[in-house]
Amino acid sequence: MTTAPDAARQEALLRLARQRGRTGAATSRASAPTGGAEGPAPLSHAQHRMWLMDRLGQGGALYNVPFATRVRGPLDLDALAGAVTSLVRRHEVLRTRYGHDDGEPYQEVMAAGPVPVRVVDATGDGRGELSVEAARPFDLGAGPLPRVLCVRHAPEDHTVLLTFHHIAVDGGSLDLITRELDARYRSAVEGRAWEPDTDAPRYTDFARRERAESAATLDTGPAYWAERLAGARPVPLPRPAVPAGGRGEGHVIGAPLTPCTLEGLRGVGRDHKATLFTVVLAGAFATLLEATGGEDLVIGCASSHRDRAGWRDLVGLCVNTLAIRTDLSGVRDFGELLSRVRDDLLEAHRHRDVPFDLVTARLGAAARDDDGNPLVGVTADVLPKPSGLRLAGTECEPVDIDLGTAKFGLGFYVAEATDCTGPRALVQYDRGRLDEETAQGLLDGFAALLTEVASDPGRPLSRGAADRVDHREAELTTAPLGTRGEAVVAVFGELLGDDPGPDGDFFFLGGHSLLAVRVAERLRERLCLPLTGLDVLEHRTPRALAALLDERAEQRRRTTTAASGGVARRGPARTGTVLVTGGTGGVGAFVLRELAARGRPVRALVRPESAHLVAGDGIEVAEGDLADPRSLRDAVAGVDAVIHSACTFTSPEVDVAAMRALLDGWRQGSFVFVSSVDAYGRPPVVEVTEDTPSAEPLTAYGRAKLDCERMLWEAAGTGGRGGATAVRAPLVWGPHPRLRDQLRWGATGALFQAARSGEPIVLPAAGAVPASGDPWSGAPWVHAASLARALVTCAERPAHGMVNAIGGHVGWEEFATELNRLLGSTGGIRPADGTASVPLLHRHRYRAEALAEELVERPGEDWRSVIAAMLDH
Question: 477 CB contacts (<8 Å, ≥6 apart)?
Fold first, then answer.
């Protein structure tokens, strides 16, 4: 964590940077833009694909971009913090959030603020700290700001890791960022100001222009590609008998190439009027031809928009996917194949401005095969020598961080030589789609082919046996549909407006990505089984989805023993049991539901009179009360995880004593404590991050939460019990009686009661808490189901520290307007005459990064929908 002296030095440097910025603005032709003048903007098409994958459940670390550098020598952390902060201030896309309105995403530039540098001491070689940080998911809705971690190996030996989200950067962006950070850091350590002479290009302008251009060619552009790709199918990768991992889990294997081989490949390219990349792409086609016998193949490659005037210095995602389809029938040798690939690649580049998501939308069901695999499931590229930061006065060396993910089923690459290794042929594969033996065979064939054609481009090509994957269609069409299949049919009918029957195809019925998210959500709610939008896209029919759900139900049956007779009474804890306190509360009820969906056995701590409210399969009841320490110690005995969500709200001393009792009984596994953003108190910043220290004044409730957190850290530091996580939550909303009562009588009670009685809703007058000049006043909130997902994830994968769980922020004015509308009130809204109640006079906005994946808003979890549901409940 950043130390207090570090934070003080960083703040002093930031003040100096701001002073320098004001001085430099007088002499420069244009100052850096503050951004956001036009308000929300559309996403670029490439960003839209990133956003969709996140919504479909394929987010996590898949699109994280780690950028690490080993820095030896005197590292000025204050200068580094100032350099990153000024970089983010200049380039709007690095401080942009991605919300959505009724399923339509938008991007919105946030106010510039300091970017902290978190410093930790290395454990061993520091790889553990770097890997964990690089894999932490981002919250696109809150704004995926760059994260900076500095791992200290020795006083003058550090590894600096900057982690970005791919929605904001590409490879060209990293080159720009490297150059600018070098200049900013150098100027800071030399004590002088530095700022580019011109404004940075704005990514929102790029997105608006791209959208306008694609709208102008909406018929002709996608039509070309639809015709070009008509009848094309994904490369048929042999399916592993037992997948070594889940979809998206990647592994990279490599084979050395000689420098002479690489020069030979360049020479072959020159002789055929082709680039090295084109030769490598042709090598990938040839390898697949010889391995599978397939003569009609599609391989994807990236195309950049950076050659356009005005965008060369743009930080942002400026790439498009090109689907290169080559007819290999009758091709005899590599030279002939290379000529065909070169011509097809040049033709594709003439139509490269057509966004790939528009192409896939035009293709519809044809964009995937019967197993749900995308048309572009194989890619190829040339990887340049890795780059890293260049910081004045130090020796810098790039550090590779492997996230263990794969965006494609299979990738063929040639990596340029580095200072430590020669050139290499690489194969990256998805362990859920390909086994290691097959991947190794493809690598061996690829490396051998490149070596041979480097000296003999006339090398003849062989053809392997065409791969014919046996599908289970006959088996599926004769299997009974079952109750889960009937549920899928019903949900398809509700959302697609037609009776699909057992074998109705989701795409042919008019389905698309966002509808897949809604289908998965409804089926999760009804069947309490895990399902994602990507599952719907990959399985497509009620019969296939039912088979998948049956498999997951069977997996659950094997991992848990269902309780008989309704409520299960006390006994020895089963393996994997999670203790949930407050199981009848607004948060605890959703936690129980989420644990059931994941197949975890549960022990629920409830008062005796409430035991019947948590009856259900797999739930063991532990009768007790927060005011009874002995019952708490008994309840925690033998469990493998604790999620402590119970709270009195009004008796801090009881809450603290209950925490002490639970920690006394905690012996193993993870411990998740549901804390509150009230534990921050009133920090003197608007944007409150997970590193922001608490500041007075604190309410009694907030102080109790802070005290409980400190007790948890003390307990976790002794005895090796397991991972400890404190999750700071804001207002929790959801369709539950306890949460409904909080809406009507808690902090928002005055607003609700005024609207219900038809009286004017009195809102706090514009003020400054803190003195930010921002007139916004509102509150952070989170949906109970979203919070439950976050809590259960922390129980399974502890965050080992304090994290936020923020679903979003709602302004009091828009909240009051919605209340009036829902309740039919004509009382209106008026500002307060004096100072409003403290709970409403709120300016802080909170960021949640560690739990971003679980907190992604799902259909029906927006604040308007949940308020309507709570009023109807």
Answer: 503, 543
Query: What size, in residues, is the chain?
Result: 873
What's the rounded Cα separation, in Å, for the pair 690 and 223? 48
The CB density around residue 826, as the number of other CB atoms within 10 Å, is: 9
CA distance 402 to 282: 27
Please confirm whether the linkage preceding 697 is cis (ω < 30° from 0): yes
According to the per-residue pLDDT averaged within each range, which of 142-151, 210-219, 761-770 is highest? Answer: 142-151
> Is the pTM of the predicted complex or chain greater than 0.70?
no
Residues paired with residue 619 on neighbouring β-strands, in sequence order: 602
Q: What is the DSSP letter of 681?
A: B
Helix (H) or strand (E) holding 450, with range, is: helix 436-453
Q: Tell me how far CA of residue 503 lies from CA of 492, 540, 546, 548, 595, in angstroms.
A: 11, 9, 11, 14, 31
User: Is residue 629 packed enough to be buried (19+ CB in 10 Å), middle (13-18) or exposed (0-12)?
Assistant: middle
Q: What is the mean pLDDT of residues 93-100?
A: 90
In degrees to the nearest 10, what's the CA dihedral of 665, 666, 668, 670? Answer: 160
Q: Residue 536: which residues within 8 A CB-CB, separation 6 or more?
A: 506, 511, 516, 519, 520, 545
- What the block records as the tokens of 803 is 């994290």
* Burial of 342 (C-beta count, 10 Å sphere; 0-12/13-18/19+): buried
How many Cβ atoms from other residues are within 10 Å of residue 329's Cβ?
A: 7
pLDDT at 689 over 60: yes
Nearest-Å Rg of the Cα atoms of the chain is 29
106-135 pLDDT, tens digit each: 999 988 888 989 899 988 888 888 988 898
Closest CA to 519 of 859, 105, 99: 859
Residue 795: HSE in the Cβ half-sphere, 13 Å Cα cutoff: 29
Instruction: Give 606's strand partners.
Output: 623
Q: How many Å apart are CA 828 and CA 820, to the nearest integer?
A: 7
Q: Where are the alpha helices (DSSP H) in 190-248?
A: 203-216, 220-228
Opening angle at CA 761, ends 756 and 763, nearest 5: 145
Bridge partners (DSSP) of residue 299 are: 324
End-to-end Cα, the chain, rounded Å: 43
Interval 200-215 mean pLDDT? 90
Burial class (CB in 10 A: 0-12, 13-18, 19+), 608: exposed
Contact 391, 185 (CB under 8 A): yes
- Over 60: is that where the pLDDT of 771 sits? no
| Structure tokens belonging to residue 690 | 């997970």
Residues 6+ apart with CB under 8 A from 871: 740, 822, 823
Indicate the SS3 state at residue 433.
coil
User: CA 320 to CA 315: how far, in whole Å?
Assistant: 15
Give the chain's largest Cα–Cα span. 87
Contact 389, 178 (CB under 8 A): yes
H or E element in which residue 5 lies: helix 4-27
